[in-house]
User: Which sequence fits this backbone?
């Protein structure tokens, strides 16, 4: 009796394991018909937009019904499923968070890991190390995708201005619509689908590239100031000097004017110049802010790129100030007290600098009245230079 029970138990175990074996084989067979066409199963992705596309090929309807993509916390809903030659092409637009993103594609339980590195400047991106995913690395478009994506005409719902230079490349639009979503301010060559003016390397027709390193050379093709590149001026803003226009401008478009990712008048500036962030706050901890900063912003005085004047100011300091404070236009002496020079000598506090309005007034803000560098009361401000 005991023997029989044992036998039965053993049978049950072997039956279960045989079953499990068949289920396993079946699921492997099933998974074989589900193919991830893009991206690679394990890769590093540099991108500005925090998302990518998963394109999954599915052999038949039953598999399609069971198909599921999970990001661990949630199920991802397909964006579009299209049928061609009895094969389904399931498209997902997948949101990414900086760092490792893990997904499971079922049936089959395939693990997909994407290491997402947000791209703000091409200086910190290296596309040539192994494991970096580039969809267009070897050709413009994979054969299979061509079945549907070989578009030769600009879509009808898309208005394109006739442009005097370059040609439109409508083929990019069907896959890259996302770069126009949520961008209020679009860059003309991108909005006109002239993608290849920036993305095609002359020597390697058929491949799509992203310029590595400095993008300024690209921009200077079309953007010169009176024939001169900002990079050739006397006083250059450091990021411009490095040649990275895209650290501030999105080459396609962005939420703020001039295709910037933050308000270019001041918010953008203080994202790097954090010591000046206080000037934009409601509570400025006793600092009186120069009235113009909350209006015209930093760019009322500074060119964000370069100029012929120190600190990339639009004009020499005194001219700059009297451009708004007209009562002192052309005055070289007599303020704040009779006969006081306004230019000419060296600044006794900073001997390497000319004496000017900014020697006594802080152009950004100050804890003292009239933006002065010291208190007028008791002559403290005068005492900075005179004993
Ligand atoms: C003015 C030059 C320029 C034009 C025109 C342009 N791009 Fe780009 N694009 C760039 C640069 C530079 C990058 C490098 C990354 C960055 O700074 O965003 C880039 C990056 C990309 C990326 C990577 C996406 C990401 O999130 O990082 C895609 C996709 C792209 N471009 C598609 C297009 C398409 C499609 C068009 C046409 C509709 C186009 N580009 C037009 C300059 C351009
Ligand atoms: C059977 C036809 C078909 C095939 C094959 C196909 N696609 Fe698509 N794809 C479409 C259609 C249709 C859309 C537009 C969906 C929409 O916007 O409603 C689309 C949209 C896209 C988008 C844009 C999604 C978005 O965010 O708006 C990308 C990216 C894309 N396809 C990539 C690919 C890639 C890569 C391949 C090849 C591996 C491929 N597709 C194969 C039909 C197809
Ligand atoms: C069949 C769809 C498809 C077409 C057509 C297409 N792309 Fe892409 N492209 C992709 C996918 C998929 C990626 C990977 C990023 C993603 O999923 O959004 C990508 C990425 C890129 C990138 C980032 C670098 C890279 O190689 O991954 C650039 C730049 C780019 N595309 C430009 C273009 C331009 C310019 C055109 C038109 C000449 C174009 N693409 C046409 C599907 C397409
Ligand atoms: C193929 C020529 C071309 C290239 C290359 C180009 N641009 Fe432009 N850009 C234009 C045109 C055309 C306009 C629209 C001009 C206008 O409306 O005055 C424009 C407008 C702009 C504007 C907004 C100007 C305004 O007054 O609204 C900015 C900012 C800009 N481009 C930055 C860039 C940056 C950064 C690059 C390099 C990544 C670049 N551009 C590359 C042609 C180009
Ligand atoms: C530090 C951020 C920053 C960098 C880097 C930068 N820009 Fe700008 N850019 C701005 C801001 C802010 C404005 C808007 C200025 C204004 O409001 O007067 C602007 C405006 C522009 C304009 C339109 C107005 C004009 O002066 O013609 C163009 C074109 C432009 N930038 C191109 C470029 C190019 C090309 C580069 C790279 C060589 C570049 N920018 C680098 C911040 C930047
Ligand atoms: C991406 C970061 C970044 C942004 C955004 C940025 N700057 Fe700068 N800026 C720098 C760096 C780096 C330097 C050089 C180091 C320093 O002086 O702090 C610099 C220097 C300066 C200088 C001193 C130049 C000199 O000759 O000493 C001025 C003025 C300036 N920036 C103004 C601005 C203004 C105005 C804006 C907004 C339109 C802005 N910056 C946005 C990075 C940035
Ligand atoms: C009213 C004109 C004006 C405005 C507005 C202005 N600046 Fe300045 N900025 C100047 C002048 C003038 C100097 C040179 C000061 C000197 O000679 O000591 C200067 C110097 C600088 C410097 C280098 C010295 C320092 O203080 O660090 C930076 C960086 C700078 N400004 C950033 C900014 C930023 C960021 C904003 C916006 C929050 C801004 N500026 C707004 C006029 C202005
Ligand atoms: C783009 C115009 C503009 C420029 C350029 C400008 N300012 Fe002003 N300034 C203003 C505005 C606006 C106010 C606020 C006026 C008010 O509150 O009544 C102001 C206020 C002042 C005040 C305080 C006045 C008071 O009664 O408290 C002083 C001092 C001053 N500016 C000095 C300067 C100096 C020095 C420069 C050059 C470095 C300069 N300004 C450049 C627009 C400008
Ligand atoms: C030697 C130091 C010094 C220099 C240089 C200087 N100021 Fe002043 N400024 C003062 C003092 C002190 C006051 C306060 C005056 C008062 O009590 O009447 C003042 C007040 C002001 C005021 C506010 C009061 C008014 O008259 O409206 C403005 C605006 C001003 N200066 C602008 C300028 C400009 C523009 C320049 C450069 C052309 C300049 N200052 C150069 C010291 C200076
Ligand atoms: C940032 C430095 C600085 C500050 C602050 C300053 N001065 Fe001067 N002051 C100078 C310079 C430089 C001269 C020219 C000296 C020379 O030519 O040797 C001068 C000259 C003078 C003169 C002589 C003018 C003439 O007729 O030759 C008087 C008076 C004077 N200052 C008074 C003041 C008073 C009052 C204050 C305070 C309200 C003041 N200064 C604040 C730098 C300053």
Assistant:
């Amino acid at each position: 009796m005991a023997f029989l029970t044992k036998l039965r138990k053993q049978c049950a175990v072997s039956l279960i394991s045989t079953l499990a074996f068949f289920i396993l084989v079946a699921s492997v067979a099933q998974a074989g018909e589900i193919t991830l066409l893009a991206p690679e199963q394990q890769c590093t992705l540099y991108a500005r937009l925090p998302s990518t596309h998963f394109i999954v090929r599915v052999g038949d309807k039953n598999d399609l019904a069971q198909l599921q993509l999970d990001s661990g916390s949630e199920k991802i809903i397909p964006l579009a499923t299209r049928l061609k030659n009895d094969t389904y092409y399931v498209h997902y637009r997948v949101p990414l968070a900086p760092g490792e993103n893990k997904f499971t594609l079922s049936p089959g339980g395939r693990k997909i890991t994407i290491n997402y590195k947000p791209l703000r400047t091409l200086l910190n991106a290296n596309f040539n190390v192994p494991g970096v995913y580039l969809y267009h690395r070897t050709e413009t478009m994979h054969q299979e995708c061509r079945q549907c994506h070989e578009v030769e005409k600009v879509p009808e719902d898309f208005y394109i201005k006739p442009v005097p230079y370059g040609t439109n490349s409508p083929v990019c639009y069907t896959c890259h619509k996302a770069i126009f979503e949520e961008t209020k301010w679009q860059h003309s060559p991108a909005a006109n689908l002239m993608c290849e003016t920036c993305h095609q390397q002359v020597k390697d027709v058929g491949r799509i590239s992203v310029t590595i390193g400095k993008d300024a050379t690209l921009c200077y093709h079309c953007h010169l100031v009176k024939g001169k590149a900002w990079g050739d001026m006397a006083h250059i803003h450091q990021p411009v000097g490095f040649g990275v226009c895209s650290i501030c401008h999105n080459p396609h478009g962005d939420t703020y004017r001039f295709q910037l990712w933050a308000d270019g008048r001041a918010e953008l500036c203080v994202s790097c110049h954090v010591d000046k962030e206080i000037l934009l706050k409601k509570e400025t901890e006793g600092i009186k802010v120069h009235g113009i900063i909350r209006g015209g912003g930093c760019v009322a005085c500074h060119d964000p790129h370069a100029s012929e004047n120190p600190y990339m100011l639009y004009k020499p300091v005194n001219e700059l100030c009297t451009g708004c404070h007209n009562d002192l236009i052309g005055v070289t002496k007599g303020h704040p007290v009779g006969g006081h020079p306004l230019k000419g000598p060296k600044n006794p506090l900073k001997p390497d600098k000319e004496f000017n309005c900014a020697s006594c007034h802080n152009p950004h803000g100050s804890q003292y009245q009239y933006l002065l560098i010291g208190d007028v009361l008791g002559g403290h401000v005068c005492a900075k230079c005179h004993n």
Notes: The CA atoms of residues 302 and 379 lie 31 Å apart.
